[in-house]
Protein backbone atom coordinates (compact mmCIF):
# COMPACT_ATOMS: atom_id res chain seq x y z
CA UNK A 1 0.00 0.00 0.00
CA UNK A 2 1.61 3.25 -0.99
CA UNK A 3 2.29 5.72 1.77
CA UNK A 4 -0.34 8.31 2.48
CA UNK A 5 0.53 11.83 3.51
CA UNK A 6 -1.15 12.17 6.85
CA UNK A 7 -0.56 15.83 7.56
CA UNK A 8 -3.96 17.23 6.54
CA UNK A 9 -4.84 20.91 6.94
CA UNK A 10 -7.43 23.32 5.65
CA UNK A 11 -6.24 25.70 2.94
CA UNK A 12 -5.66 29.35 3.75
CA UNK A 13 -8.22 31.78 2.33
CA UNK A 14 -7.34 32.71 -1.22
CA UNK A 15 -8.13 36.38 -0.58
CA UNK A 16 -4.99 36.56 1.54
CA UNK A 17 -2.74 35.85 -1.45
CA UNK A 18 -0.61 38.69 -2.71
CA UNK A 19 -1.20 39.95 -6.20
CA UNK A 20 1.08 38.38 -8.80
CA UNK A 21 2.71 41.72 -9.61
CA UNK A 22 3.71 42.22 -5.96
CA UNK A 23 6.31 39.45 -5.94
CA UNK A 24 9.19 38.19 -8.07
CA UNK A 25 8.49 34.81 -9.69
CA UNK A 26 9.93 32.24 -12.07
CA UNK A 27 7.76 30.37 -14.56
CA UNK A 28 7.86 26.57 -14.30
CA UNK A 29 6.35 23.68 -16.27
CA UNK A 30 4.66 20.86 -14.42
CA UNK A 31 1.64 18.56 -14.43
CA UNK A 32 -1.50 19.66 -12.62
CA UNK A 33 -5.09 18.72 -12.03
CA UNK A 34 -7.77 21.41 -11.96
CA UNK A 35 -10.61 19.53 -10.26
CA UNK A 36 -11.23 16.19 -8.53
CA UNK A 37 -12.44 14.67 -11.79
CA UNK A 38 -9.70 15.98 -14.10
CA UNK A 39 -6.65 14.11 -15.33
CA UNK A 40 -3.25 15.65 -14.70
CA UNK A 41 -2.09 17.63 -17.73
CA UNK A 42 0.80 20.01 -18.58
CA UNK A 43 0.54 23.28 -16.68
CA UNK A 44 2.70 26.38 -16.38
CA UNK A 45 2.77 28.19 -13.06
CA UNK A 46 4.86 30.63 -11.04
CA UNK A 47 7.27 29.81 -8.26
CA UNK A 48 8.91 32.49 -6.13
CA UNK A 49 12.40 33.70 -6.87
CA UNK A 50 14.91 32.45 -4.31
CA UNK A 51 15.05 34.19 -0.96
CA UNK A 52 18.34 34.53 0.94
CA UNK A 53 17.96 31.13 2.64
CA UNK A 54 16.56 29.25 -0.34
CA UNK A 55 17.85 26.44 -2.52
CA UNK A 56 16.75 26.25 -6.17
CA UNK A 57 16.52 22.62 -7.27
CA UNK A 58 16.18 21.00 -10.69
CA UNK A 59 13.92 17.99 -10.13
CA UNK A 60 15.32 14.72 -11.49
CA UNK A 61 12.91 12.18 -9.99
CA UNK A 62 9.65 12.38 -8.07
CA UNK A 63 7.98 9.48 -6.32
CA UNK A 64 4.24 8.93 -6.62
CA UNK A 65 2.62 8.64 -3.20
CA UNK A 66 -0.90 7.37 -2.58
CA UNK A 67 -1.63 10.72 -0.93
CA UNK A 68 -0.99 12.39 -4.31
CA UNK A 69 -3.99 10.50 -5.59
CA UNK A 70 -6.06 11.31 -2.49
CA UNK A 71 -5.28 15.00 -2.76
CA UNK A 72 -5.75 15.17 -6.54
CA UNK A 73 -9.23 13.68 -6.15
CA UNK A 74 -10.06 15.66 -3.00
CA UNK A 75 -10.66 12.52 -0.95
CA UNK A 76 -9.81 14.43 2.23
CA UNK A 77 -11.86 17.52 1.37
CA UNK A 78 -9.02 20.06 1.61
CA UNK A 79 -7.68 20.20 -1.95
CA UNK A 80 -6.61 23.50 -3.55
CA UNK A 81 -6.78 23.70 -7.36
CA UNK A 82 -4.94 23.88 -9.63
CA UNK A 83 -2.72 21.31 -7.89
CA UNK A 84 0.75 20.06 -8.82
CA UNK A 85 1.32 16.98 -6.60
CA UNK A 86 4.57 15.35 -5.53
CA UNK A 87 6.52 15.28 -2.24
CA UNK A 88 9.15 12.60 -2.83
CA UNK A 89 11.61 14.82 -4.65
CA UNK A 90 15.17 14.10 -5.73
CA UNK A 91 17.00 16.84 -7.55
CA UNK A 92 20.18 18.72 -8.33
CA UNK A 93 20.99 22.11 -6.83
CA UNK A 94 20.95 24.86 -9.45
CA UNK A 95 21.69 27.80 -7.18
CA UNK A 96 21.50 28.90 -3.54
CA UNK A 97 20.70 32.13 -1.73
CA UNK A 98 23.51 34.22 -0.22
CA UNK A 99 22.89 32.91 3.31
CA UNK A 100 23.05 29.22 2.35
CA UNK A 101 26.25 27.37 3.31
CA UNK A 102 25.17 23.71 3.49
CA UNK A 103 24.55 23.22 -0.24
CA UNK A 104 26.35 24.08 -3.46
CA UNK A 105 25.35 23.94 -7.10
CA UNK A 106 25.49 20.42 -8.50
CA UNK A 107 24.77 18.60 -5.23
CA UNK A 108 22.09 15.90 -5.17
CA UNK A 109 19.41 16.74 -2.63
CA UNK A 110 15.94 15.71 -1.54
CA UNK A 111 12.72 17.41 -0.47
CA UNK A 112 9.97 15.57 1.37
CA UNK A 113 6.48 16.40 2.61
CA UNK A 114 7.26 19.73 4.32
CA UNK A 115 8.93 22.93 3.14
CA UNK A 116 8.55 25.11 6.23
CA UNK A 117 7.47 25.29 9.88
CA UNK A 118 7.43 27.90 12.64
CA UNK A 119 10.90 26.83 13.92
CA UNK A 120 10.22 28.03 17.48
CA UNK A 121 7.45 25.91 19.07
CA UNK A 122 8.20 23.02 21.42
CA UNK A 123 7.92 20.46 18.61
CA UNK A 124 10.19 22.34 16.21
CA UNK A 125 12.78 22.91 18.92
CA UNK A 126 12.94 19.11 19.32
CA UNK A 127 13.45 18.62 15.58
CA UNK A 128 9.87 17.39 15.19
CA UNK A 129 8.73 19.86 12.54
CA UNK A 130 6.11 17.37 11.35
CA UNK A 131 4.23 18.09 14.59
CA UNK A 132 4.69 21.89 14.47
CA UNK A 133 2.26 23.43 16.95
CA UNK A 134 1.90 26.68 14.99
CA UNK A 135 1.85 25.79 11.32
CA UNK A 136 3.99 23.70 9.04
CA UNK A 137 3.82 24.22 5.28
CA UNK A 138 3.29 21.22 3.03
CA UNK A 139 5.26 20.80 -0.19
CA UNK A 140 2.08 21.08 -2.22
CA UNK A 141 -1.60 21.86 -1.65
CA UNK A 142 -0.74 24.55 0.87
CA UNK A 143 0.00 28.28 1.17
CA UNK A 144 3.47 29.72 1.81
CA UNK A 145 3.46 31.52 5.16
CA UNK A 146 5.79 34.28 3.96
CA UNK A 147 4.45 35.46 0.61
CA UNK A 148 1.05 33.69 0.61
CA UNK A 149 1.73 31.97 -2.72
CA UNK A 150 0.33 28.46 -3.27
CA UNK A 151 2.83 25.63 -2.89
CA UNK A 152 3.25 23.30 -5.86
CA UNK A 153 4.94 19.90 -5.72
CA UNK A 154 7.49 17.79 -7.51
CA UNK A 155 5.66 16.89 -10.71
CA UNK A 156 7.54 19.84 -12.20
CA UNK A 157 10.84 21.13 -13.57
CA UNK A 158 12.20 22.75 -10.43
CA UNK A 159 11.35 23.81 -6.91
CA UNK A 160 12.50 26.54 -4.50
CA UNK A 161 12.83 25.46 -0.86
CA UNK A 162 14.26 26.86 2.38
CA UNK A 163 17.65 25.25 3.04
CA UNK A 164 16.41 24.02 6.43
CA UNK A 165 13.99 21.69 4.64
CA UNK A 166 16.44 20.30 2.09
CA UNK A 167 18.31 17.07 2.81
CA UNK A 168 21.51 15.63 1.36
CA UNK A 169 21.41 12.43 -0.70
CA UNK A 170 24.35 10.14 0.15
CA UNK A 171 26.83 9.46 -2.62
CA UNK A 172 26.24 6.18 -4.41
CA UNK A 173 22.57 5.87 -3.49
CA UNK A 174 20.41 5.17 -6.55
CA UNK A 175 18.61 8.46 -7.13
CA UNK A 176 15.37 7.04 -8.53
CA UNK A 177 15.12 4.44 -5.77
CA UNK A 178 15.87 7.10 -3.15
CA UNK A 179 12.85 9.25 -4.05
CA UNK A 180 10.26 7.26 -2.02
CA UNK A 181 12.54 7.39 1.01
CA UNK A 182 11.40 11.00 1.43
CA UNK A 183 7.91 9.78 2.41
CA UNK A 184 7.52 6.00 2.55
CA UNK A 185 10.99 5.58 4.04
CA UNK A 186 10.77 8.22 6.74
CA UNK A 187 7.18 7.30 7.62
CA UNK A 188 8.35 3.84 8.67
CA UNK A 189 11.77 4.88 9.98
CA UNK A 190 10.34 7.37 12.48
CA UNK A 191 8.38 4.83 14.56
CA UNK A 192 11.25 2.35 14.37
CA UNK A 193 13.54 4.94 15.93
CA UNK A 194 10.98 6.31 18.41
CA UNK A 195 10.32 2.83 19.81
CA UNK A 196 14.07 2.13 19.83
CA UNK A 197 14.08 -0.88 17.53
CA UNK A 198 17.40 -2.68 17.31
CA UNK A 199 19.04 -6.05 17.85
CA UNK A 200 16.75 -8.32 19.83
CA UNK A 201 13.58 -6.41 18.90
CA UNK A 202 10.71 -8.27 17.31
CA UNK A 203 8.78 -6.20 14.77
CA UNK A 204 5.80 -7.10 12.61
CA UNK A 205 4.47 -5.17 9.63
CA UNK A 206 0.83 -5.21 8.52
CA UNK A 207 0.51 -4.83 4.77
CA UNK A 208 3.05 -5.17 1.98
CA UNK A 209 3.05 -2.08 -0.22
CA UNK A 210 4.98 1.16 -0.52
CA UNK A 211 5.18 1.60 3.25
CA UNK A 212 5.26 -2.06 4.21
CA UNK A 213 8.17 -3.04 1.98
CA UNK A 214 10.26 -0.17 3.39
CA UNK A 215 9.35 -1.14 6.96
CA UNK A 216 10.64 -4.67 6.35
CA UNK A 217 13.89 -3.47 4.80
CA UNK A 218 14.61 -0.96 7.55
CA UNK A 219 13.65 -3.31 10.37
CA UNK A 220 15.99 -5.98 9.07
CA UNK A 221 18.84 -3.53 8.56
CA UNK A 222 18.46 -2.37 12.19
CA UNK A 223 19.18 -5.93 13.28
CA UNK A 224 15.66 -6.75 14.50
CA UNK A 225 13.48 -9.74 13.71
CA UNK A 226 11.10 -8.78 10.90
CA UNK A 227 7.70 -10.40 10.30
CA UNK A 228 4.87 -9.68 7.90
CA UNK A 229 1.15 -9.97 8.55
CA UNK A 230 -0.73 -10.45 5.29
CA UNK A 231 -4.09 -11.67 4.04
CA UNK A 232 -2.52 -12.88 0.78
CA UNK A 233 -0.65 -16.22 0.84
CA UNK A 234 1.07 -15.34 -2.43
CA UNK A 235 3.14 -12.57 -0.85
CA UNK A 236 5.45 -14.83 1.15
CA UNK A 237 8.22 -15.06 -1.43
CA UNK A 238 8.33 -11.29 -1.93
CA UNK A 239 8.26 -10.68 1.81
CA UNK A 240 11.20 -12.98 2.46
CA UNK A 241 13.13 -11.34 -0.37
CA UNK A 242 12.58 -8.00 1.37
CA UNK A 243 13.93 -9.35 4.67
CA UNK A 244 10.99 -10.93 6.47
CA UNK A 245 12.00 -13.71 8.86
CA UNK A 246 8.44 -14.98 9.05
CA UNK A 247 5.16 -14.43 7.26
CA UNK A 248 1.89 -14.76 9.18
CA UNK A 249 -1.38 -15.25 7.33
CA UNK A 250 -3.70 -13.06 9.39
CA UNK A 251 -6.81 -14.99 8.30
CA UNK A 252 -5.38 -18.24 9.72
CA UNK A 253 -6.31 -18.67 13.38
CA UNK A 254 -3.56 -21.19 14.00
CA UNK A 255 -0.83 -18.95 12.61
CA UNK A 256 -2.10 -15.99 14.62
CA UNK A 257 -2.20 -18.05 17.82
CA UNK A 258 1.39 -19.16 17.20
CA UNK A 259 2.64 -15.55 17.48
CA UNK A 260 0.57 -14.55 20.53
CA UNK A 261 2.56 -12.17 22.75
CA UNK A 262 5.53 -12.09 20.38
CA UNK A 263 5.96 -8.58 18.94
CA UNK A 264 7.41 -5.52 20.63
CA UNK A 265 6.20 -3.28 17.81
CA UNK A 266 3.67 -3.70 15.03
CA UNK A 267 3.72 -1.15 12.19
CA UNK A 268 0.28 -1.00 10.58
CA UNK A 269 0.61 0.37 7.04
CA UNK A 270 -2.93 -0.38 5.80
CA UNK A 271 -4.36 2.84 4.25
CA UNK A 272 -8.05 2.03 4.60
CA UNK A 273 -10.45 1.21 7.43
CA UNK A 274 -9.79 -2.22 8.92
CA UNK A 275 -10.06 -4.20 12.14
CA UNK A 276 -6.91 -3.93 14.26
CA UNK A 277 -8.24 -6.06 17.14
CA UNK A 278 -6.94 -9.42 15.81
CA UNK A 279 -3.37 -8.09 16.03
CA UNK A 280 -3.46 -6.85 19.63
CA UNK A 281 -2.98 -10.30 21.23
CA UNK A 282 0.23 -10.72 19.24
CA UNK A 283 1.82 -7.78 21.06
CA UNK A 284 4.22 -8.54 23.87
CA UNK A 285 4.01 -7.02 27.34
CA UNK A 286 4.35 -3.24 26.85
CA UNK A 287 4.10 -3.73 23.10
CA UNK A 288 2.76 -1.09 20.72
CA UNK A 289 0.79 -1.19 17.49
CA UNK A 290 1.44 2.04 15.59
CA UNK A 291 -0.81 3.22 12.77
CA UNK A 292 1.06 4.96 9.96
CA UNK A 293 -1.23 4.34 6.99
CA UNK A 294 -4.82 5.17 7.88
CA UNK A 295 -6.69 8.38 8.65
CA UNK A 296 -10.05 8.15 10.35
CA UNK A 297 -12.13 6.27 12.87
CA UNK A 298 -11.63 2.60 13.60
CA UNK A 299 -14.42 0.16 12.92
CA UNK A 300 -14.96 -2.02 14.84
CA UNK A 301 -13.91 -0.15 17.97
CA UNK A 302 -10.85 -1.20 19.91
CA UNK A 303 -11.27 -3.96 22.43
CA UNK A 304 -9.47 -2.60 25.49
CA UNK A 305 -9.12 -5.95 27.31
CA UNK A 306 -5.84 -7.02 25.62
CA UNK A 307 -4.52 -3.49 26.09
CA UNK A 308 -5.25 -3.34 29.80
CA UNK A 309 -4.13 -6.89 30.51
CA UNK A 310 -0.68 -6.36 29.00
CA UNK A 311 -0.06 -2.61 29.23
CA UNK A 312 -0.17 -2.57 25.44
CA UNK A 313 -0.70 0.52 23.32
CA UNK A 314 -2.19 1.62 20.03
CA UNK A 315 -0.40 4.71 18.73
CA UNK A 316 -0.02 6.80 15.60
CA UNK A 317 2.91 8.33 13.74
CA UNK A 318 3.56 10.41 10.64
CA UNK A 319 6.74 11.36 8.79
CA UNK A 320 9.85 12.36 10.70
CA UNK A 321 11.48 15.74 11.18
CA UNK A 322 14.30 17.00 8.99
CA UNK A 323 17.12 15.77 11.26
CA UNK A 324 15.51 12.35 11.47
CA UNK A 325 15.00 12.28 7.70
CA UNK A 326 18.69 13.00 7.14
CA UNK A 327 19.56 10.26 9.65
CA UNK A 328 17.38 7.82 7.72
CA UNK A 329 18.98 8.76 4.38
CA UNK A 330 22.47 8.36 5.82
CA UNK A 331 21.50 4.96 7.23
CA UNK A 332 20.14 3.92 3.84
CA UNK A 333 23.34 5.11 2.20
CA UNK A 334 25.43 3.00 4.58
CA UNK A 335 23.30 -0.09 3.98
CA UNK A 336 22.46 0.39 0.30
CA UNK A 337 18.72 0.62 0.97
CA UNK A 338 16.33 2.10 -1.58
CA UNK A 339 12.72 1.49 -2.52
CA UNK A 340 11.66 -1.12 -5.06
CA UNK A 341 10.32 1.02 -7.87
CA UNK A 342 8.88 1.21 -11.36
CA UNK A 343 10.11 4.27 -13.26
CA UNK A 344 7.52 5.98 -15.46
CA UNK A 345 7.27 9.02 -17.71
CA UNK A 346 5.20 11.96 -16.53
CA UNK A 347 2.84 11.34 -19.44
CA UNK A 348 1.92 8.02 -17.80
CA UNK A 349 0.86 9.53 -14.47
CA UNK A 350 -2.89 9.15 -14.93
CA UNK A 351 -2.50 5.47 -15.83
CA UNK A 352 -0.24 5.08 -12.80
CA UNK A 353 -2.96 6.49 -10.54
CA UNK A 354 -5.43 3.91 -11.84
CA UNK A 355 -2.89 1.14 -11.29
CA UNK A 356 -2.26 2.37 -7.74
CA UNK A 357 -5.95 1.90 -6.98
CA UNK A 358 -5.51 -1.74 -7.96
CA UNK A 359 -2.22 -2.12 -6.02
CA UNK A 360 -0.62 -2.87 -9.38
CA UNK A 361 2.91 -1.74 -8.57
CA UNK A 362 5.89 -3.21 -6.70
CA UNK A 363 6.15 -1.07 -4.76
CA UNK A 364 6.36 2.56 -5.80
CA UNK A 365 6.07 4.53 -9.01
CA UNK A 366 8.81 7.10 -9.60
CA UNK A 367 8.57 9.71 -12.35
CA UNK A 368 11.64 10.39 -14.48
CA UNK A 369 11.19 14.16 -14.73
CA UNK A 370 13.38 14.35 -17.83
CA UNK A 371 10.26 13.09 -19.61
CA UNK A 372 8.63 16.46 -18.91
CA UNK A 373 10.80 17.91 -21.68
CA UNK A 374 9.75 15.24 -24.16
Explain this structure to me?
With 374 residues, the protein is of the alpha/beta class. Helices cover 21% and strands 26% of the residues. The chain is built from ten helices and 19 strands. It has helices at 66-72, 122-125, 175-178, 184-194, 210-221, 236-241, 253-258, 305-308, 322-335, 349-357; strands at 25-32, 41-48, 54-64, 89-96, 108-111, 114-116, 137-138, 142-143, 150-151, 158-162, 167-168, 202-206, 225-230, 246-249, 263-268, 283-291, 313-316, 341-345, 364-368. Strands 3, 4, 5, 10, 11, 18 and 19 form a seven-stranded mixed beta sheet that branches. The protein has a six-stranded parallel beta sheet with strand order 14-13-12-15-16-17. The protein has a two-stranded antiparallel sheet with strand order 1-2. Helix 4 packs across helix 5. It is globular, with a radius of gyration of 20 Å. It starts with 24 loop residues before the first strand and ends in a 6-residue tail after the last strand. Residues 1-22 have low confidence and may be disordered.
Amino acid sequence: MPAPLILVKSPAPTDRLLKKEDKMTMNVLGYATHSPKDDLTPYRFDRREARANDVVIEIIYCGVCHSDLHQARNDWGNSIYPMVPGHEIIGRVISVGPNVTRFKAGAHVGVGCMVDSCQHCAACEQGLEQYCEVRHTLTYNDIDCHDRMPTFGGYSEKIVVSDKFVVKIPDGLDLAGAAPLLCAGITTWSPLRHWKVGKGSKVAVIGLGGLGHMALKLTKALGAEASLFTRSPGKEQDARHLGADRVVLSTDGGQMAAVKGRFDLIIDTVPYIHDVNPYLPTLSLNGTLVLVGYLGGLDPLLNTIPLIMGRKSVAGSVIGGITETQEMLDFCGEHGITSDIEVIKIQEINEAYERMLKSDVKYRFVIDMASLKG
